[in-house]
Design goal:
The chain is an all-alpha fold and 180 residues long. 68% of the residues lie in helices and 0% in strands.
Length: 180
């Protein structure tokens, strides 16, 4: 009997999850390069795919799925609907205030690693009396342009402080235009 495509995808996903992150990153290079229009040597030279591979591993059904999950890390400018920056049950002004507070927290963080990012941003959500999903969603959109992306703290670390702050600054300008 013929295997269904869903069964083949499921089996492929099992194989992908069994790989070491380094092996996965290496296997993803040609797929990400093709999907994003980069040369393989450029994708291999950069750290983003190696850094994000363990974060996307659980979500991959096929190797070709990776490009759409990591494209934001290879783009200088990300495009998205500015309305996505408005958090759930929030106004544009409230979202802008929350993003501004997040920007300040990220700028002042002594160590820019996943544990420090997790601790600081969870505390900030509490201080702002927001649900973590509200705050994290706004930050995720600002830095990736996507509502669904690899886990936030790994994404922020991969992009690095300077790129995150620059993308948040762009998000703040977009929110400012909506808050008028």
């Amino acid at each position: 009997t013929a295997l269904s495509y869903a069964k083949i995808e499921w089996m492929n996903g099992l194989y992908i999850r069994a790989l070491s992150p380094d092996d996965l990153a290496e296997l993803l290079v040609p797929f990400v390069a093709k999907g994003l229009g980069f040369a393989e040597r450029e994708v291999r030279r950069r750290h983003e795919l190696r850094d994000l591979a363990p974060h996307i591993q659980e979500r991959l059904k096929t190797l070709a799925d990776a490009a759409a999950l990591v494209d934001f890390a290879f783009q200088d400018e990300i495009e998205y609907d500015p309305a996505l920056l408005i958090g759930k049950n929030m106004t544009a002004a409230q979202s802008r205030a929350a993003l501004l507070a997040a920007r300040q927290a990220l700028a002042e963080l002594p160590v820019f690693d996943e544990a420090a990012l997790d601790t600081r941003l969870r505390a900030l959500a509490n201080d702002l009396e927001l649900k973590t999903g509200q705050l994290f969603g706004i930050i995720r959109i600002a830095v990736t342009g996507k509502a669904v992306a690899p886990p936030l703290f790994g994404t922020l670390k991969t992009l690095g402080r300077d790129r995150c702050l620059a993308r948040i600054d762009r998000g703040l300008k977009r929110l400012e235009a909506l808050a008028i």
